[in-house]
Amino acid sequence: MKPVDLAGFALRAILTNRRRSGLSLVGVVIGVVAVVTLTAIGEGALRYVTDQFRSLGSSLVIVAPGRNETTGGLPAAFGGVPNDLTFEDALAIQRQVRAVKTAVPIALSSAPVSQQERRRQSPIIGATAALARLQRYEIAYGSFLPETEIDRGGAVAVLGHTVARELFGNASPLGETVRVGGWRMRVIGVIAERGTQFGMQVDETVFVPTATAMRMANKSSLSRIILELNPRSDPTAAIERVKEVLVDRHDEEDFTCISQDAVIESLGSILHILTLVVAGIASISLAVAGIGIMNVMLVSVSERTAEVGLLKAVGASRRQVLLVFLVEAALLSGAGGLLGLFVGEAIVHVGRLLYPAVDAQTPLWAIGAVLGLSFATGVVFGVLPAWRAAGLDPVAALRSR
Amino acid sequence: MIRVEDLWRTYQMGDHALHALKAVDEVIESGEHVAIMGPSGSGKSTFLNVLGCLDSPTRGTYYLDGRDVAGLPDGELAEIRLRQIGFIFQSFHLVARLTAMQNVELPMIFAGVPAAERRARAARALEAVGLSDWSGHLSTELSGGQKQRVAIARATIMGPSLLLADEPTGNLDTHSGAQVLALLDELHRAGRTLIVVTHDPAVARRADRVLVMRDGEIVKRVAGASVTDLASLFDFGEPTP
Q: Is B98 near chain A, with CB under 8 Å?
């Protein structure tokens, strides 16, 4: 018995009972649509998050004071107060680690910002000129912080879009003076509207030179050092080298180095596992659909008892009868799988049009898995009906009507 | 050649056994035309099913062309039914969703015959039974006589040496019945062994020999030509109540 003929025979049987076959398909379709759309959303979310990180720059390493962030070492109380992260550290890294292209010292604080009567509280970021490049800030007016030695301060400020509008309305703030935490600063630039990025509200922020920000906030330690790596340099090796330099200066590892890639990777794997879990839950509905198929096939076998008797009379073996019904069930569920894939992809496509930001796309592994799974559903749940058909006594079967 | 010895077919009905066949001994030569008659429940269909390898005897031996087939596994029995035996039923047993042509093709599908050859052979077989014009019709669109002719084409498509017909004209009017019987005669003349179960003395008369069964046993063997009416055939020499 050739597979083509087997499929042809099964297909004719399926098409004879269109409504019943169709209804049993719906179950499979729903299951497959669920898997397809949910994994597409999961992968879309993963890509969205990854892209957000990538937009921060190609290959960044962040150094933060204190070693309790990710390494899980002794709490500060046992390891002593960590050393400050200083400009000297940043300069040492930039000089001694060849993989590091730029080191940007960052000081984070918050202060009231005012211009005449207008006043608001703003996050203050102390940074250097390079930050604009690393974070891809677009400058609406004027310029970003000046290119100077990284430890050099200055009474200049760059305003986020919202801050500029709230303090100056539609007037140009360029060259005007604002008060930042009691310090008088000259506005040298405004950053174009940007929106929220990882909870960092650039539009609400005031940028000043790092040294100035530290003096304003009366801090001795940098909040972060952002390291821009040379392209094609190995982040892992670079981090090792940075650690060596800093340990040499601090006598202990009282800081934390995170590469952006590592963050993306761990976030990615979390999202991936979430997607898998969701897909797994969705595929439970496939099992339910399988029971629907089993039911339809059982009805079909009992309706076609006489036919089974005839097939045996003309020379079909038990094995061939089993195959006939098994293939029928597998075709049913396989067709449901294909149809579900089609419908699911259509929904995903519409979703992409509606929410282009989340680039939802069903991953190939999910397509393969869901097609295989729906096919297997038919085979697994087709076994019982097919077994029943194959086991029919031909004499009794021929007599039934 | 068919040879059965001490053939029993027993159904266990609860705690009592029903013997559909009781110690049947018979030899049917190749190319013979045999009719099996007998009142309902006499075991003639059971005998036919056992001869057709659709049913297995509870006891006894069955030699088909010299081979003991009584205890063969399902796969081998299926192979015998496929290649050596053709069945014709009273109720035709065509698959309703298939065309006449597709019904005739069925055995060849299980034999793995390629599609093109299948269609050519089925077309020839339908032509032989005078149904060339009906090959594309669904079996539900055919008359009873046409259905039975399709069934005959299907039964002979694999070239079996043994044809078994269970009341082949039982559901047919006289005219269609005559057509079907003429076809069966033709097949018999071509050298096939033909065994027909029938109630109809006119059908039995065409046979070389008539086996008369009663309560699972062959109680009479007469020449086909000698059959006149059922009453004399089923007269077993007992007073009728």
A: yes
